[in-house]
Amino acid sequence: MGDVVRVGVVGGGPAGLLSSIVLSRAGVFVDVFEEHPQVGLPRHCTGLLSSETINSMQKIAGGLSKDFILRSFREYVVRVAGSSKSLTLKIPGKVYVTDRVLLEQELTDVATSEGVNVLLKSRVNGLSSDGQLMASGDVGPRKYDLVILSEGSAMNYSTALRMCEGREYLRALQSVIRVKGHVPGHPLVYVGREVSSSFFGWAVPYRDNGVIVGYADEKASLTKLRKLVRTYLTDAGTVGEEKSFFGGLIPSVKPCKPASGKVVGVGDAIASVKPLTGGGLYPIVKEVEAIPAVINSADIMEYVRRVNPVLNKLRKQYLLKKSLKLFGGYAGIVRVFWELGIRELTVSDYDSLRFRLWFPKNHGGFGSFLT
Ligand SMILES: Cc1cc2nc3c(=O)[nH]c(=O)nc-3n(C[C@H](O)[C@H](O)[C@H](O)COP(=O)(O)OP(=O)(O)OC[C@H]3O[C@@H](n4cnc5c(N)ncnc54)[C@H](O)[C@@H]3O)c2cc1C
Which whole number is the average pLDDT over 248-254? Predict the structure, then answer.
């Protein structure tokens, strides 16, 4: 590949911004192309992150405040909608709900202070695997030694360059509701066909007495979201009003190939999201941690070797998610545990989803069944 002196980054989301920071620190000139006039907007993400993911981001970026952290949780309650069946997932350490818009603004500040050239309102409208890039505005065609493709769920170039086999999505809709009175201290996850045929719904306590209620499915509608809001308010024994709506796309294809020629994919652009939960930041930090290897060895294959173990785990989870249908989806799993008398599971690794099962008396316990 030769020496890497100039890198172009397509997309200023967390994948692009974190990548730009490690690259700039490695002594490389970096241009980030972001089509929107501001980073972080329009907002799409719920913002749940493990302490490990936040720590890794702090290590990569440094200089981040803790202002983007809003709340923390130690458990989730997964409930079959319309029934009393539920399962509590206990989390070692903590999971945090964060202000994603603020996080991305802070990442941009760090990137800029490191000398990264963040070009807003610059849409990349041409990219080839030899590093040739075209963008809107007064940016003429440019040739880069390396391109980080972090275009998010658009996946335009990752499909055009045949890194991904195609595009499929879960559509997610969310509403921030303001509730009167007490907000339950932990997130609720709603499973079952009446909420979503292929995913689930959620109610996540947010700042003050706000709660983000949302769900994802192959098709999502406002009517169904409003039904979920009513279910949540009834379960929580409170009333509330909708304040705002937002949403986005979660790639649901098998995680793609991580590179093509001089182009390296990071984040949603290569569908590297956790298939069972839709979480994307954990794989992103793992991928970003592998980027300095490309610069040091001047070899893109080194990146591929380093990220393949992460992508392979996601691919295994992808197959598992497909086979869940045979067991009645997420709701089927909760029902099975309920019938076995199991009300609680301990997640021993939130990010790679390992569970520790504690059976009732006489059954003993056994370790991880998901990696
Ligand atoms: C509803 C929802 C809830 C989620 N909740 C969580 C959660 O709780 N925890 C978690 O870890 N993950 C969550 N995720 C996933 C997470 O948001 C994504 O994995 C993450 O945002 C991916 O980051 P990214 O940088 O790859 O892509 P993005 O954040 O999508 O950023 C891509 C950027 O590229 C820009 N762009 C695209 N094309 C071009 C172009 N041609 N030229 C210039 N700019 C371009 C876009 O404008 C955008 O700013 C959620 C996703 C959704 C949809």
Answer: 96
